[in-house]
């Protein structure tokens, strides 16, 4: 008995000395290392998925090139099964010397919890990332929709989307104001409206360009219709482009929102630059109808400022001949409302540019 006690004591002392030696070599505090008990990094083993050998504590990291082998029509459902139990972290490949980003949507659709991007790059993937995480009070965490825990759901097959209402968006772009300039010339803007989501939902449409007017351009009333099957991971994105003398498109501004945060009516859409920073006074005036398959309890935000109930502030007819009979007070109100602070429903914060 004494020998066993002595042996255990010697083993414990040896492990402690080994830990201290590792601390000196790697400069890691042993007390801090002992706190890391919730996850352990392990190499990804596809054969463990769905078996008893799969452990919820195991977390694997994937460069985007490796992740792309799983986030596709062939293996996407199996990778989603892996992410129901374990954590995955995906990061840009090292060959992206320009710090560009990959599309995070396929990774989100397959349940990856940690999708790392190059935050220093102001591009579409980063703008979608910021739009997604403005939900849940901008806490940095967003709960995955219940459908992702359904064994029959395939993120690349629209026929397996159940329990999520199908959404039809009907959008009219009526006007804009105080658009930034690309250079010294006069802006000839056009608006691109895009739904970013699963492959079967992604589509974009454009308005005509407004000739030589970046201050308060207007567009004839024209309805753009979008049908969205999987609205849980879909975004509505407005992009303002300038058409130059060579007929090339130059980026001016953008606004990106999760589909299920939208509301109906006349809306003033605050515009942002490529870094998702507010552009002072710049905004779009749109009218939006949303036809939902069925009501569903979920987080509903108001990303745009409502202007439908605005009182008539003036009797002017700015752009009314092009806006097809829209009340002049609504358009006039749009010229003032986007720069006003608003209260963020449900969060009690001052909205940044009227986003919430």
Automatic annotation (TrEMBL):
GO MF term list: phosphatidylinositol-4,5-bisphosphate phospholipase C activity
SUPFAM superfamilies: C2 domain (Calcium/lipid-binding domain, CaLB), PLC-like phosphodiesterases
GO-annotated biological processes: lipid catabolic process; phosphatidylinositol metabolic process; phosphatidylinositol-mediated signaling; positive regulation of epithelial cell migration; release of sequestered calcium ion into cytosol
Domain (C2): residue spans on this chain: 150-273
Protein known as: Phosphoinositide phospholipase C
The enzyme's E.C. designation: 3.1.4.11
Top-level division of the source organism's lineage: Eukaryota
One Pfam family it belongs to: PI-PLC-Y
Catalyzed reaction equations: a 1,2-diacyl-sn-glycero-3-phospho-(1D-myo-inositol-4,5-bisphosphate) + H2O = 1D-myo-inositol 1,4,5-trisphosphate + a 1,2-diacyl-sn-glycerol + H(+)
A cellular-component GO term for this protein: ruffle membrane
Keyword terms, alphabetized: Hydrolase, Lipid degradation, Lipid metabolism
Segments forming domain PI-PLC Y-box: 32-149
InterPro entries: C2_dom, C2_domain_sf, PI-PLC_fam, PLC-like_Pdiesterase_TIM-brl, PLipase_C_Pinositol-sp_Y
